[in-house]
Write a structure and sequence with these properties.
Blueprint lengths: L6 E7 L5 E11 L2 E8 L4 E10 L2 E5 L7 H10 L7 E5 L5 H4 L9 E3 L23 E4 L2 E5 L8 E5 L4 E5 L15 E2 L2 H12 L5 H15 L5 E4 L4 E3 L2 H21 L1
Parallel strand pairs: 5-6, 6-7, 11-13, 12-14
Antiparallel strand pairs: 1-2, 2-3, 3-4, 4-5, 8-9, 9-10, 10-11, 13-14
Helix pairs in contact: 3-5, 4-5
The protein binds zinc ion (2 copies).
């Protein structure tokens, strides 16, 4: 009975009969799910991810506090409960990535030590700050990318070949791909390439972006799961190489000028 239908939509209904999407919850690949919560305050989807194993559930990021009930609903849809969450890895310490952690009392919670001083979480000591700049934690290989926040990490899940990029590379405030939340996202990839080409990333940040992208290229990812919006399936290496090429050219032009 595993994997029958694997898409859910949560709606908020208004008194006048209207409704708006509250969250999308979808299968990404075997045993990995995305919960994309529509955040009307930020006009963006905020994403978190559930990696489901018999022994327990891992969350990569866990959303804002006010959205944690959606995460519980999502777990329930999979026949799991908050008690089954045994591991949380946060890509960085912003509220939309850590605050939901409060609900999961049985989970070990990891974040990079560079986030300790500014983590947006009321009980910072609930998190463990033992990640190094490059290491392995259970099925996950992670690396410090240090852009967006000083302790932002990229996380590679070897069994599913998914790269979790957090907000280092994401689609904050962007519409979803015309092909849906989980898709090849060619339109989104194209927009990111254009954004970079058009100078969307400041010169100060460009070097670190390129460094982070080179790191990500080494992972041989098949799927890219970001902190906000569309989940990209396929051609990830080509996408990253395209970004690197544009970024390196921008860097060269800067030297010539
Ligand atoms: Zn962030
Ligand atoms: Zn975020």
């Amino acid at each position: 009975m595993r994997h029958q239908y694997r898409k859910w939509i949560g709606y908020v209904f208004f008194e006048n009969g209207g409704r708006t999407v509250d969250y999308l919850f979808e299968l990404v690949t075997e045993n990995v799910y995305v919960l994309a919560v529509w955040d009307s305050a930020w006009n963006s989807y905020n994403n978190c991810y559930l990696v489901v194993k018999k022994e327990g559930v891992t969350l990569i990021d866990c959303g804002k506090k006010e959205h944690s009930s959606y995460l519980v609903e999502a777990l329930n849809k999979l026949g799991r409960s908050p008690e089954d969450v045994t591991l949380i890895v946060a890509t960085h310490g912003h509220e939309d990535h850590v605050q939901g952690a409060a609900v999961f009392k049985n989970a070990k919670k990891f974040i990079h030590p560079n986030e300790r001083s500014h983590i947006e979480y009321p009980e910072p000591d609930e998190f463990t700050y033992e990640l190094s700049d490059h290491g392995i934690l259970e099925d996950y290989e992670y690396r410090l990318v240090g852009l967006h926040t000083p302790g932002s990490i990229a996380i590679f899940h070897q069994p599913s070949k998914i790269l979790f990029t957090g907000d280092f590379l994401c689609f904050f405030g962007d519409p979803l791909s015309k092909d849906g939340l989980v898709s090849d996202g060619n339109d989104l990839k194209k927009e990111w390439l254009e954004y970079l080409r058009g100078g969307g990333v400041s010169k100060d940040h460009l070097d670190r972006l390129l460094e982070g992208l080179s790191t990500m290229k080494g992972f041989d990812a098949h799927i890219m799961c970001t902190g906000h919006g569309g989940v990209l399936v396929g051609d990830i290496e080509r996408f990253i190489s395209g970004l690197l090429e544009i970024g390196e050219n921008l860097g060269k032009n800067e030297i010539v000028q």
